[in-house]
Amino acid sequence: MDDLPLQKIQISGPTLASLLQRFSSSPGDVDGLLFGRVTHIAATTFADDDPTTTVAASSSFDSPTLIATITSFICSNSNSTFYDSAGRLNLLSLRRICSDNQTLSLLGWFSGRRKTPLRPSMRESAVTSSLSSKIQFAFQVENSPKSYTLSPCVFLLLTTPFHDQLIHTHEYRAYQFRLSTEFFEPKTLDVVNIGPAFRGHYGAFCPNSQFPMLPCELRVSSSMAEDGNCESESLKSMKRVSEDQRVLDMYAEDFDVGRLNRLIGSDAANYTGELEDMYKKMLAKLEGLARLVEKSSARVLEQENHNMKLRCRVAGLE
Amino acid sequence: MAIDTVPPLIAAQLNYLLSHSPLPIKVEQMWSGSKNHGLLDRFTLVIPFCLDYIRWDVIYNALYPLAAPDIIFGPEDESFHPYHTAGGEGDLKSPNKSLSDWNCKDPTRLLSLILELRELYMTYQRKRVGGVEDERVKFELSTIVPREGIEMYMSSGIEKTEEVKFAVPLLGVDINKMVTGCPWRHQQKIFLQVIFPVGKKYMSAPSAPRLKLVDSPELKALFSIEDFRLPPWLDGMCMAEYLPILEGLLQSQIVDAVSSIDVRRKFIVALAPLFGRPVEADPVFCRKAAFLTSSGVFTFLHFNPSGAPIKSSIITEFPWSPRWESSEMAERFFDFLVEECLNFKKYCNESLLQQR
User: Fold this and answer.
1) Do B67 and A85 touch (CB under 8 A)?
2) B28: left (phi over 0), alpha (psi -120 to 50) or beta
């Protein structure tokens, strides 16, 4: 693992807004994991001086310019989900949480606590130190000429001001924990928003949910006048077709897999129409998913309220 | 408006800490970390260290009562990490064994955690002082190491110059035991605070460090350090030379102070036959006694124009000499007071005449 400094940390506007919303709506303290990627930016040094005297240029070769981009997070509405009171990591739960996010690397974690000073606490130092020393969570830097690996060393701290203010409601600071010095280095947190001015910044963003690879030249023959020799063949192909349909159903509602071949080749006369239709079906699917999420959220809330009552009883707060 | 309450489990731990702590730890403020503002689950502890105070924020979560608290240290102590670094996870000697086995129902845990962390903080400061690149400080440190109970602190602010502060406990004797029937709950001690500036360059004639005597708060009933003059720090002295001189002087003064308690006690006892039994007297330090007595007969109660009874002013000048025995002292005192009574009677009569 390399102990390289990050130049800055980026986060997309919706991600930060979502983080802040989770923090402010939670009744107590929260924590969670941050996912994203670290990319290498080729340093452009336009030097007016004689190239032989530029010392600065040589130093940029020693330490590459790295930018960490936070694209998503997982927030549990409670404290101490993947670590214990002494700050030691619970590797099992950590691995379980990370296994759902295969495409993204674990960049670090965040902690939100109300009305506390904006500096890392004793337990947060312990957790960050443990996390950044775990080799199994190290990841590769992208776009880099040389191979660099970094460990999850980003820590984002969110707090609220001590006295209820009308000026601002939240404070946050991003740190990179350097294992060599055991020091939390504050880094600027750039917020990347949507809009023409930011188009260039979205270079480090790429889709998390890509359209699945599906074969488009499907000929499903349902005629009964099939040769007996081809029966096993057609059984295999039918299995494949139903499998592909199942995959497509995860992204769009009621779009037959057989229509995919109308999007390519000579049959693509109605390309626009078909694509629009598929898009409509994908939106319908999203709507259905949203409704499902709503229902399950209501049940989760019920369970949480129940848990809260039990906790209050244990604490003698009834 | 909801009344702010402290959750009972947290209150039990905090109360135990405040009543059983060997050091005078105080709570500076308490506030709520939950959204509904009702439950006070966070507080700032003011902990004495090196004759000064350090402030640590203790963060509980009222909604998660089983969890151990988290601590946020002061802004200057960013490099204080009391946990064990990446090494053995099953390290039994881990300083945070008390945190991993947290029992929220045990009221003693918070106090033991704070004391443990304070010990670790002392080690951390010691290491910082040891790493200072100043020849003089290094030398002083080496001579002072065998002494027990020294606390040291390195302060480095952005505007302030770096300084190293030593808090040296003086006098190996137990002052509490020297006073019969002493009411003190904490061990009383006197400390010498020595502050050295940290400078990178070598000075041929190093100046004397800043010196100050600090005593524990209840000691002034016996002995006031304000009356004590520090012996001068001669050029080229070091702490190892200065301390024995200082301690010798202090020791003799403390012994004097203790014996003067006896002198005062004898005096109060000698007053009794003349004035009657005292209404109230301080039996330990014998600095105060109150007697109710009368001389002559007063048949009037005199009031001043505003309607309050007249009191004589507090008498500060009275006959006294260290050569008199207690009984003689008491007699002379008695005679003096009788005369004062007559004077006061005359004064009251005159003022009565004036009012008419």
Assistant:
1) yes
2) alpha
DSSP bridge pairs for B70: B59
A188 and A244 in a common domain: no
Q: Lowest-pLDDT range, A64-68, A157-161, B140-144, B146-150?
A: B146-150
- The rounded percent of chain B whose pLDDT value lies above 70 is 82
Decide if A219 is inside a domain: no
Clarify whether residues A115 and A12 are in a common domain: yes
Same domain, yes or no, for A24 and A88?
Answer: yes
Among A201, A225, A249, identify where a domain stops.
Answer: A201
Give phi and psi for A3, each to the nearest 5.
Answer: -105, 80
Helices within A200-270 (DSSP H only): 231-249
d(CA B228, CA B248): 13
pLDDT single digits (tens) A9-45: 999 888 999 999 989 888 888 999 999 888 888 766 6
CA atoms within 13 A on the CB side of B351: 17
* Mean pLDDT to the nearest integer, B155-181: 75
Q: Structure tokens of B14?
A: 């905090």
Element containing residue B141 per DSSP (H, E):
helix B135-144
The Cα–Cα gap between B69 and A19 comes to 24
Q: What is the pLDDT of residue A60?
A: 46
Contact flag B68-A85 (C-beta cutoff 8 Å): yes
pLDDT per residue as tens digits for the range A127-139: 999 898 888 888 8
d(CA B277, CA B279): 6
Helix (H) or strand (E) holding B272: helix B239-275
CB-defined contacts A:B, below 8 A: 116
Is residue A169 included in any domain, yes or no? yes
- Closest by Cβ to B66, choosing from A123, A179, A314: A314
Chain A from 97 to 126: CB within 8 A of any B CB: 113-117, 119-126
Residue A282 confidence (pLDDT) above 50? yes
Strands (E), chain B: 26-31, 42-49, 52-59, 70-72, 151-155, 163-170, 190-197, 210-215, 280-281, 289-290
How many structural domains are present in chain A?
Answer: 2
pLDDT of residue B102: 84
Give the end of a domain, one of A201, A221, A252: A201
Using the predicted structure, report yes or no on whether residue A57 has a pLDDT greater than 50: no
**Structural domain boundaries, residue A270:** 237-314
Q: What is the CATH number of the domain that holds A14?
A: 3.40.140.10
- Which residues in chain A (164-223) have CB-CB distances under 8 A to chain B? 179, 182-184
Whether residues A138 and A257 fall in one domain: no
Pair (A185, A99) in one structural domain: yes
- Residue A224, domain member (yes or no): no
Could you tell me if B285 and B261 are in contact, meaning their C-beta atoms sit under 8 angstroms apart? yes
Secondary-structure percent of chain B, ordered helix, strand, coil, rounded to 5: 35, 15, 45
Domain contains A260: yes
Task: Name every chain B residue with its beta carbon within 8 A of the beta carbon of A179.
Answer: 86
Same domain, residue pair A172 and A282: no
